[in-house]
């Protein structure tokens, strides 16, 4: 019975119809298990979790790009602050990006 299907290993003889017939015959014999089809609620939950993961990755990517831009601009706040996106470091970044002249006292006042 199985000898007929080994033709699919010969070059030029393979096609999707033969593969589908092969899998169907194996399924009829109970050799192949059926696929797991989750419930609708489970599928929706999966979709939300995948989307949340994607958004988290995008957020991390943008944060890394921001830190890289600061580093390229000779502003290495990551050596001073453990969290670049904290309140103190963000206020210092705002002062630097304002294009106004600033002094050390302005930066010290931001941290306090």
Can you offer a commentary on this structure?
It is a single chain. By secondary structure, this protein is mostly helical. It folds into three domains: 1-35, no CATH class; 38-74; 75-112, no CATH class. It contains four helices and no strands. Helix 3 packs antiparallel against helix 4. It is elongated, with a radius of gyration of 30 Å. It starts with 15 loop residues before the first helix and ends with a helix. The model is unreliable at 3-7 (pLDDT under 50).
Fraction of helical residues? 55-70%
Low-confidence stretches: 3-7
Number of helical regions:
4
Number of strands: 0
Fraction of residues in β-strands: under 5%
Produce the secondary structure layout.
Blueprint lengths: L15 H13 L11 H33 L14 H11 L6 H8 L1
Descriptive key words:
single chain; 112 residues; mainly alpha; 3 domains; elongated; disordered N terminus
Short characterization:
The protein has helices at 16-28, 40-72, 87-97, 104-111. It is mostly helical and 112 residues long.
